[in-house]
Specification:
This protein has 9 helices and 7 strands, in the order H-H-H-E-H-E-H-E-H-E-H-E-H-E-E-H. The longest helix is centred in the first third of the chain and has 20 residues. It is an alpha/beta fold. Bound molecules: S-adenosyl-L-homocysteine.
């Protein structure tokens, strides 16, 4: 496991220490162990999880790494992906992991405690509600999400949390390009600009990363409530 992880990270050009590898594997162990009791993720086999969880999350660092010292928000982090991987590999960043489900947040808080990570915290909440609070709105340098919602809806969850000048990174599957076309007007309305699509360096066109720059604060009418976002995506 350790060799495969180190080889994968090296392929991605992600420099890391022996301690970071150990932390990543300890985290993966806790994820798979807890997954036997609670349904945190669909993937249960170790080597598959190493590739599809740890290395896939690390592709963000290869394609669009957060600037030094960034405040990072991972929306709909679930079992901690990609946020835990970013927190372990980038101790210079302050990483907030948010999820709507309490049991997932409790699991992450215990992992953060066990690993003694000082740059990560898990909070329970829906992104569109957090974005209505002064503490979180127009705040983060770097907002990520993987496997949470279609991009037109996801943009309304995530972009309001980014500060003007910050980045929104969506990790998407093979329909990323199509989703991007449908989300262009939402991205523009929310203060985002010039989206770029990068194929995953590990999975080619099977996965992609969509990078959006936020250039101005999100207008006050967004985000709308979760029900409205899902029923009437902007531009849909
Ligand atoms: N990002 C993880 C989990 C994906 S599953 C991974 O790639 O493995 C989607 C997760 O998003 C679920 O845990 C769900 O609770 C959470 N979620 C969905 N909508 C959300 C919202 N609006 N705000 C916060 N969390 C949300």
């Amino acid at each position: 496991m350790r060799e495969e992880l180190d080889r994968g990270l090296a392929q991605l050009g992600v420099t890391h220490s022996a301690r970071q590898s150990e932390e990543l594997l300890a985290y993966l162990g806790m994820l798979l162990e807890t997954n036997r009791r609670m349904n945190l993720t669909a993937i249960r086999e170790e080597n598959t999880a190493l590739r599809l969880h740890l290395l896939d999350s690390a592709t963000l660092l290869a394609v669009a790494p957060p600037p030094q010292g960034s405040s990072v928000m991972d929306v709909g982090t679930g079992g901690g992906l990609p946020g835990m991987v970013l927190a372990i590999l980038r101790p210079d960043c302050q990483v907030t992991l948010c999820d709507a489900t309490r049991k997932k947040v409790d699991f992450l808080s215990s992992v953060i405690g066990e690993l003694g990570l000082r740059n990560a915290q898990a909070i329970q909440g829906r992104a569109e509600e957090l974005a209505r609070t002064q503490q979180h709105r127009d705040h983060y340098d770097y907002v990520t999400a993987r496997a949470v919602a279609a991009l037109d809806q996801l943009a309304e969850y995530c972009l309001p949390l980014a500060r003007a000048g910050g980045l929104f990174l969506a990790m998407k599957g093979r329909r990323g390009a199509e989703e991007l076309e449908r989300a262009r007007s939402a991205i523009a309305a929310l203060g985002g600009a010039s989206p770029q699509l990068f194929p995953s360096p590990l999975a080619g066109m099977e996965c992609c990363i969509i990078k959006v720059k936020k250039w101005r604060d999100t207008p006050r009418e967004y985000p709308r409530s979760g029900g409205v976002i899902r029923k009437h995506p902007i531009g849909g």
